[in-house]
Please model this.
Amino acid sequence: MAPTSDRSRGTRAVVANGVGKAVLNLRRLTRGGGSALPGLVAERIDPRMVSRLVAQLPEGVIVVTGTNGKTTTTKMIVAVLEAQGKTVLTNRSGSNLSRGVASAILERSAWRGRLLEDIAVFEVDEASMPAVCEQLRPSTVVVNNLFRDQLDRYGELDTTAAVIGRAIAGLDGSATVCLNADDPLVASLARYGDRPDIRWFGVDAEGVERLDHDAASDSDHCPQCGHALDYTKAYYSHLGHYRCPDGHVERPTPELSLTSFESIDVHDGASRLTVDVEGDSISIVLPLPGLYNAYNALAAMCAMRSRGVALHDATDALSHVTAPFGRVEHVDVHGRGLRIILVKNPAGFNQIIQTFLGHPKGTRLMLAINDGLADGRDLSWLWDVAIEDIAPCEFVLCTGGRAADMALRFKYAGAEADVVPDMVEGIAELLRRTPEGEEAEVLANYTAMLELRALLDSQATLKRFWQ
Model:
């Protein structure tokens, strides 16, 4: 009976792969992107399809998770590996649930279920980590940070950390876990399972500014006793140098440490970083702005170092990386330059304010805010955004389904914002008020960004999310 059973499983795997690829191609022809549906269909036919396919990859799988920076960090790791001559399988669309990962694998598999890549790098939704890691059996896991996000979906941060902890506890004994030493809750994940190979990254730079109204400190209490942590350095939100007053936890010493950070070109997006690696210093000009992207680069370098990649090679690749879909994306529309930036929680929004909007320059600003399922219905987090630290703007427009909520937050910050709920009309008003040859900033949460890009696509050439 065994041969028949094996033959049956093999047939099911081939059918699942073929049907999934057919659905993917059909979706791309009719709607412009593969998304998650092909993976959902294929997994219904063969629940073990993903495990069978990734087992073919000779160098295994890297998984990146956390609240902010998953997409950018994943793209950075892919850039380094490709510069090393590796062929890499990744979920470029950013679809990071189990079915999205399955769809990315389907896209690159042959019709009979063969993968030819050397290695895979996937960003994975925090709540999906246990199920996805069980299928992928990653050899490296990176956790960037844990911030309050989509409370109506994830619940409190302790719950999210426990979910990721279960995934870490289930990893193979040889797996490496790279953790952000500056995030107390992320650092606490080291206690899950028998995990000797923990790699740490963090920031030790002096003179890094913090917004005056950055009160979005989501996890600044000891994970063990609950007492407020003592901080000697606080970079943003709850990231910094901390210790429990009762001695239960203390920031680990990172093996990769950012010792200096300088914004050198905010307009085009560039930062100068100095990274200390166990006594050796490496300099890099990162073509992405903000301290938050410096953390992403540290995470990527930590993962690469754990796999034996020389850091000088890694920094060379990182010096040429570009922002992914919707993250500091420059678009020309009828002679106006629009910079589109994703915002989705207080910690990330405040970093965008810190990087782009905190200096007086007469910014033209539009905010597009929805409350779709992918955004989270609860938008009370808008009140924790440091709107007061936005420098005076030439004008502020609010559009999208929750435009009035955003405008009200500006009003309480002492600034006026005009409400144009319809996004078509909002874009038209933005272009009308922005002179030809000038620029404007557009901040949008996830579904608003997708809607905005779809509307702009008829007026400008935008990169597809799978490109």
Summary: The chain has two domains: 48-318, 329-456. Residues 2-31 form the longest helix (30 residues). The two ends are 46 Å apart (CA to CA). The domain at 329-456 is CATH 3.90.190.20 (Protein-Tyrosine Phosphatase; Chain A).
